């Protein structure tokens, strides 16, 4: 008998706790890509890895490290959730390309080339001008391809994103964003970007963060699922997944940390500036990880088949993990011990 396709969330940054890990299990999540860096340098990111190691020790019945597709399958079969590490900025590699391989060995599997601002590698979506991928960015993409660290362009600007898709020899991901045709938030992606992503075999994770939704906190499940259906009609089902951008139980002060980091002393209101006081309320139909089955039901309600629902809920991410997490030209599961040569 074929095992059911897993449920996978392409991005979260919650205030991690046993309660949230139990909600993940109750929601049936086999894997969650968790943010372990926004603006941290290498040493600070290592401290975050250490904190996760302690969580794995305290909650071995609920969570397990996720470095390969087989780790996700094993977690699904054991009723646990595989935790996949990712960076929302390139700050952990500082200005040293050698740290790309080191970060992969520490368990990182995704890295955004920029987070809203200009970085050493690419331009963020809040800059007035987008000169594209830098010289260092070209070299880092090549190195990320080699070791199996996925290029993520969720917070990057248009030209930089299109150039990253073109330069990368392996498919990239936009782990948490929605199509701009549905809601023109600055971080949602144009038809041109989604077309290039689809043609290259990349992945798009649909975001549930209210600033990315039409109607924001008042967005309905039906409208969200209709958007997913329209996207599938235009670009196919096989590139689609979820990337909820869930920030459950985080204090409002964390929004300031995300936007400001250590690069400014001024408040950078960024997206949804009218709601700059803190996190917006989540839609009533998606409060936490236990609501993923309701998302699947919503997809069925707009005409997706059971197989298609399984692909969007996690099967597509699992296939992407299989292709992407190992060394270039090798198998992802061969990298379980961190070896990339």
Provide key terms for this protein.
single chain, 341 residues, alpha/beta, TIM Barrel, 6-stranded parallel sheet, 3-stranded parallel sheet, 11 helices, 38% helix, disordered C terminus
Give a description of the structure.
The protein is of the alpha/beta class and 341 residues long. It has one domain: Metal-dependent hydrolases (TIM Barrel, Alpha-Beta Barrel), CATH 3.20.20. The protein is built from 11 helices and 9 strands. The strands form 2 sheets. Strands 1, 2, 3, 4, 5 and 6 form a 6-stranded parallel beta sheet that branches. α4 links the parallel β4 and β5. α6 packs parallel to α7 and α10 packs across α11. The longest helix has 19 residues. It is globular and about 45 Å long. The C terminus is likely disordered.
């Amino acid at each position: 008998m074929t095992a059911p396709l897993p449920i996978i969330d392409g991005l979260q940054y919650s205030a991690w706790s046993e309660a949230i890990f139990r909600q993940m299990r109750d929601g049936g999540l086999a894997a969650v890509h968790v943010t372990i860096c926004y603006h941290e340098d290498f040493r600070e990111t290592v401290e975050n890895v250490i904190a996760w190691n302690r969580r794995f020790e305290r909650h071995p019945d609920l969570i397990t490290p996720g470095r390969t597709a087989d780790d996700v399958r094993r977690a699904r079969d054991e009723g646990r959730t595989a935790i996949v590490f990712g960076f929302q900025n390139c700050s952990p590699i500082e200005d040293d390309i050698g740290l790309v391989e080191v970060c992969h060995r520490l368990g990182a599997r995704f890295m955004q080339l920029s987070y809203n601002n200009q970085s050493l590698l690419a331009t963020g979506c809040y800059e007035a001008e987008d000169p594209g991928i830098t010289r260092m960015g070209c070299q880092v993409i090549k190195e990320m391809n080699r070791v199996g660290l996925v290029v993520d362009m969720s917070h990057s600007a248009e030209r930089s994103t299109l150039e990253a898709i073109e330069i990368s020899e392996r498919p990239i991901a936009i782990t948490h964003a929605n199509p701009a045709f549905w809601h023109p938030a600055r971080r949602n992606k144009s038809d041109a970007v989604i077309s290039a992503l689809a043609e290259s075999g990349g992945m798009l994770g649909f975001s549930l963060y209210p600033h990315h939704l039409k109607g924001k906190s008042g967005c309905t499940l039906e409208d969200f699922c209709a958007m997913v259906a329209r996207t599938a009609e235009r670009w196919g089902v096989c590139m689609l997944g979820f990337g909820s951008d869930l920030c459950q139980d985080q204090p409002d002060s964390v929004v300031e940390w995300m936007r400001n980091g250590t690069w400014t002393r001024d408040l950078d209101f960024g997206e949804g500036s009218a709601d700059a006081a803190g996190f917006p309320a989540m839609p009533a139909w998606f409060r936490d990880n236990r609501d993923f089955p309701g998302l699947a039901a919503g997809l069925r309600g707009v005409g997706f088949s059971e197989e298609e629902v399984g692909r969007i809920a996690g099967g597509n991410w699992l296939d992407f993990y299989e292709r992407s997490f190992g060394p270039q030209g090798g198998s992802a599961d061969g990298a379980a011990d961190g070896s990339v040569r």
